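Field: sequence (string)
Field: structure_tokens (string)

Example rows 1 and 2, in order.
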Amino acid sequence: MPKKTKQETQEEQSERFRAEAERLIAAGELSPTEAEAAIDNLVRKQARKPPS
């Protein structure tokens, strides 16, 4: 039986995303401009979702 995945809150998911973006920026794999655009995109998508 597969392990049950942990359901993250929106805040936990956002923090995990930001931390990964910062890691990629530090490693030179992602520019800060691209990271900002990705975060904005994530926030816009979440704002369009109806509350569950």
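Row 2 begins here:
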Amino acid sequence: MSGPVHAALAGDPVLAEHYAAFRAKAESALNPRLVALIRQAIAAVHGMEAAAIDDAALDERTRVCVAYARRIPFEHTAITDPEAASVVAHLGEPGFVAFSVVAALADAECRAGLVDLEGLAGV
């Protein structure tokens, strides 16, 4: 694993290992393609991803999940119960929890990169 959060944790190898393991467990509960799309969608919201996702090429399940992921960085308080329920309907409750963790970590990692967390941590 790499990235600004991992780099900022380099001074504490145990914490870095735990963070990597936590992220890997959440990601392993989902399809790897969906994980990549979640991370790409959130990075695009932050202006960090050049390649846009072609929603027309996605199946309905994936399109619903990507649309939800796009709202997490700046519109999370406006997400409705029916919107969340549609993701739960596609992924199941455990999948929704994993999806939420993956999306939250992707958002945090993007934000860490935007503020140079590694530099702020003195690494």
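free_text_note (row 2): DSSP finds six helices and no strands in the chain.
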